[in-house]
Amino acid sequence: MLKAGVLGAGHLGKIHLRLLKESSRYDLIGFHDPDIIQGKAVSEEFGIPYYENMNALIEAVDVVDIVTPTLSHYDCAKKAIGKGKHVFIEKPITHTQEEARELIALLQAKGLKGQVGHVERFNPAFQAVKHQIADPMFIETHRLAEFNPRGTDVPVVLDLMIHDIDIILSVVQSEVADIQASGVSVISNSPDIANARIAFKNGCVANLTASRISLKNMRKSRFFQRDAYISVDFLERKVEVVKMKDAPEEPGEFDMVLQNAEGAKKQIYFENPEIVANNPILDELEALATAIEKDVTPPVPLEQGARALDVALRIIQAFETSKLNA
């Protein structure tokens, strides 16, 4: 078993602590949080050793799970990697691209494994259909959340939209050609509502909307590709797959057939992929353990986390451009 230590005991950090404690792949050694009162309270609640000294915890483990505020990701990861430890870093990977590039270089130099916590990759709905998403030409995503003060210290792009950015980059095999975006601040000092249009060099276009001041929660993505429409509901963990094929010469009574202006006939049919229930956070943590043990690349390596951050920062930069052109 790999010895693990957690940095950060906030809302998400406590979830990681509970799951790592239950995991058969890790031996949870302890955790650190700079708030000593919070740390001791969590230690008593979970029965997990609290380390007042972060360096002492890093020295005692094989894997450092970083669930601290984004601004501290770089410092925590640099210390852990410098001590020869594998790292799991919650999204977004770092605050800046320069920090991300430095961590990637340091990790490679040390020959270690690192993974970024883009948890929607492990959502059972996405897992059920990701192999069917091939060369999408239009993607539409909506990620709406009711207001929660937690996370409002960063733009909604880094808080919510980055999940969809990562999913899109994982299925579109092309470089980004252009980004247009606009954002509106309603309650926070940074944008609470954002819309972005990402155009890829292969012609694919993705339209993303994110809001953290909605009346209801929604996390849905729609993928349009030749002869197929795939909808993924990340919140409800449901999928909808609609496909087309050449219509038979003699369609059945209940077959759905469309005919275009040229006379070509297509049959519409539905698929119902099996959705296997899982715990996405536990799966992403254990995926890193597998990568370490088998010496393979993790499902979401630091390079992919850095690419998602790059696009997110370009979207935020586009906000300013749109204001200047208004």
TrEMBL record:
Pfam family, one: GFO_IDH_MocA
Signal sequence extent: none
Record Gene3D superfamilies: Dihydrodipicolinate Reductase, domain 2, NAD(P)-binding Rossmann-like Domain
Domain Gfo/Idh/MocA-like oxidoreductase N-terminal: 3-118
Lineage: superkingdom: Bacteria
Domain (GFO/IDH/MocA-like oxidoreductase) ranges: 155-216
Protein name: Gfo/Idh/MocA family oxidoreductase
Organism: Robiginitalea aurantiaca
Classification of source organism: Bacteria, Pseudomonadati, Bacteroidota, Flavobacteriia, Flavobacteriales
